[in-house]
Structures are given as C-alpha cells and as structure tokens.
Amino acid sequence: MVKTTTNKRAASAPGDTGSYVSLDERRAKGRALRDSVQRASHAGWKAPKDRADPIKILEKSNVGRMPSLVPIRFGRMSQSPFAFYRGAAAMMAADLARTPASGIRVQACGDAHLMNFGGFATPERNVIFDINDLDETLPAPWEWDLKRLAASVVIAAQHLRLADSDAARVVLDCAREYRERIADYASMRALDVWYDRIDLQRYEDRMADPDLVRRMRERMKERIEDAKRKGTPEFLFPKLVEMQGATPRIKDEPPLIFHPTDEMAPGLQSRYAEAISAYRETLGEHTRVLFDRFHFCDLAMKVVGVGSVGTVCAVGLFLAAEDDPLFLQVKEARASVLEPYAGKSLHANHGQRIIAGQRLMQAASDVFLGWTHGKDGRDYYLRQLRDMKMSAVMEDWDAGMLRQFARMCSHALARAHARSGDAAAISGYLGNSETFDDAIGEFAVDYSDQNRSDYRALVRAIREGRIQAIVEE
C-alpha cells in the first residue's frame, strides 16, 4: 500500500518536473505502479481489529457543531443505511486511508457519493451535470473518490431493494465507466479536457438502450424546468421572505430556519459588514461591480443536508431593488475529513480551500463563489442559493435508471480528476482489462456490509439513549 501523508500539488502531470514527458511515458509510469500496488489488491474490505468505534468517530465529528442541531443530524442519519452513509464521510475517510493507493494524486472531492452529483446552471445559464458538493475537497489519492462513489452505488441499490445481482452489475459498470472515461481524457488535448462539460440537455450515452435514454431525457427535462421555476425570484422571494412593515425579513421556520442570536453570530450588530467586505474582495473584479448593486437586508440560519447539519449554514438576503433579490448561501468551511490522512490544506482559510477545489474540479462554477472569515472564528464560503441546483430523486428508480446515473457520476468524476491529475498515468495503471473494475466491485459490496453494521450501531446507540436523535416529520 502506498500511503500519502503530505499535501503536495494534486497533479502529477509532466510540468511538475519542468521537462516534457510524452503520453506513452506517462502511461508507462502508471503501468509500472502495478508492480508495487497490484490492481487486484483494491478488492474487498475487512475492518481491521484496531478500527475506531463508529459512534466515537461520529461524536468526535460533532465538535464545533451547534449542540441544538446535532440530534437532527443523527435523526436524519438514522433513517436508512443510505442516509447514514451520506453523513459518515469522516468514518470512511479513516477507512480509505488504510486501503491500497497507487500514489497518483488528484484534487479529490472527498465525499463522492451519488447524492453529491447533480445538475446546476453555468453563468451562461446552461444546465450541466457535475460534482455539486465539494466541502471535503483536498489533494488526495484518486482511488478514494472512486471507492466512495462505488460503495454508494451498492448502498443505493440496496436502498431501492434491487437484487444483489443488479447491484453487482451496476457497480461494475460504474467502475468500467470511470476507467474508459479516464482513458478518453488521457488521449485528449489539455484544453479540450479543460473545456469539456456534461450538458444535461444534450446528454447521450451510446451504451444505454433507447428506451432508457428516452426515459432519462423526459425526467431530465421535467427536473430542469422545475429547477428553473424554483430558481426564479418570483418563486424564491415569497417562499423565503415576508415583509415586517417596510422591511423584508427571511421567514422563520424553526428548527430548520431561524434568526441567530448575538451569541450565535457575533457579527450581527454590525450587520456582518466586515465578513461581507472580506467576501467581496474574493470575487472577481467584474463580479464585484455586479455585487455592489445589492445591499444586505437579512440573514437567517438554514439547516441543510445530512453531513452538514450542526455546522453553521445560513441564507443571506440582498436586494438591488424591491423586486430584485439575491439569495446567497453561507456555509461553514471546516477542515476536510481527508486532512488527517492526506495532509493539511495549503490554504489557511478552509472556505478558500473549498472554492479553489471547486474551480479546479467543476467544468463551470457560480460567479458568486467566494469565502470569508467570521467574528466567531469560523471560515465560510458563499454561493448562490438554488441557482437551478438539482440533486437526484431516486426513490422510484429501477436498475436501469441507477446504472445510468452511476455512469454519469463516473463520467463527471473522471473529468474532474483529469483536470487536476495525470489522466495518462491513471489510465496506464488501470489498463484495458476488467481487473480493477472487479476489485472495486468487490470492495463496494464488502464496504456496504460495513456501512450497514455501522448504521445498526447508531440505531442501537439511539435506542439505548447514548445518543439523542430527533426524527423530523
């Protein structure tokens, strides 16, 4: 096993040495890595005897979170093994660090499960498919992302009550798609890789049957239209805002949306002027001109997701005119769960770490992406709220739909890794056979059993009163 402990540049591309290295030479270097880390060594998972208690890892990850919201976090994680997996990134990061790694690093997502991929609007208002949650991003082994994605595919198949044989086929196809896409990117010109994007409105997959493609297109069209409608000021403003006299205020809907106290938000009295000013300086000069048209009106805490529950998340309301709002999501940026195993970030501010990783991995990013530091001592990053953001709604999926979505996620992950890392070296390591695909499939199935065991430990701890959980209606 090759274990990385320092946070070097993500890419191991030819420019790192200052001399040109041909495509064939880079592939050959990747193939040579098989001598020390065999592809079959990635297969399977067995918890080591000294593996940490999962409940203790979860409790440790609560340090710094708002205590009143932690029971909501555990309540959401207790809903199913799939929901538990979404909130257990720290636990899996510790496990992944003990698995084989080839030594090739990329800008890793850090939490590449199925629900962290989806659609969103580019600045040109096209809808693309990509990784859409990068809170844990950090330079790290590329295998860690693929293993977390593959395990989430099997856990999702079990959540949908698909046959074990279907789950096995879907995860093998997920790994194959990554391998084949990396090979494609390895042969592309550098600028072509950088400009490549997955356009949802034009997405095609030659490997899918025509009926599945038709169903996917119909569903995508409906989701895109719904996201466009919900992202408009006409929808968001009356849904989130009420007038208190002549003053617009974000509606309180406790415990999920509420206004902070002075103790919770030390910048409240100054209306967060320092933090907003610092955020403005991280925007491009052209975006500052646009941002300066808006003035700050209100901010409220907003509980989101599963893994983020308990961290400081908020929505800010800015107005350019009475009917011209800008909603910004403010999210606390904590140290990546990969940091203890991959090395510390090169960025002093974790908000900057996230934005730098996002701009490197995504084909296009929100123009309002920026970061700041609060008077409470926490780092934050900001982006537009909603902005046509779409996540998977998979409750009625069959094996074909899951297979297609998993392939899209693998495509997006390979593209992101090719932007920051050496696709030729990764492709050389993977080769053309299904050896690595089979290994990843076996790992994913075994790790899904580990996830179920950890989930049961959480449910048992809640039942015995060792952990408090609030299940929302």
Average the pLDDT over all residues and give the rounded result: 90
The profile of the biggest β sheet is: 6 strands, antiparallel
Q: Provide the domain count.
A: 2
What shape does the CA trace take?
Answer: globular
In terms of per-residue confidence, which ranges show pLDDT below 50 for 5 or more consecutive residues?
Answer: 1-15
> Can you give the helix content as a percent range?
40-55%
Structural class: alpha+beta
Tell me the number of helical segments per DSSP (H or I, 4 or more residues long).
17
List keywords for this structure.
2 domains; 44% helix; 473 residues; four-stranded antiparallel β-sheet; disordered N terminus; alpha+beta; globular; 17 helices
What report would you give on this structure?
It is a single chain. Helices cover 44% and strands 15% of the residues. The chain is globular. The protein has 2 domains: 21-229 and 395-463, no CATH class; 235-384, no CATH class. It has 17 helices and 14 strands. The protein has helices at residues 23-32, 54-60, 70-77, 81-86, 89-96, 142-159, 164-187, 190-195, 210-230, 233-240, 273-281, 285-291, 339-342, 350-361, 399-420, 423-430, 435-463, and strands at residues 105-108, 117-121, 127-131, 138-141, 198-199, 241-244, 247-250, 257-258, 295-302, 313-321, 324-333, 370-373, 379-384, 390-391. The chain has 473 residues and is an alpha+beta fold. The termini are far apart.
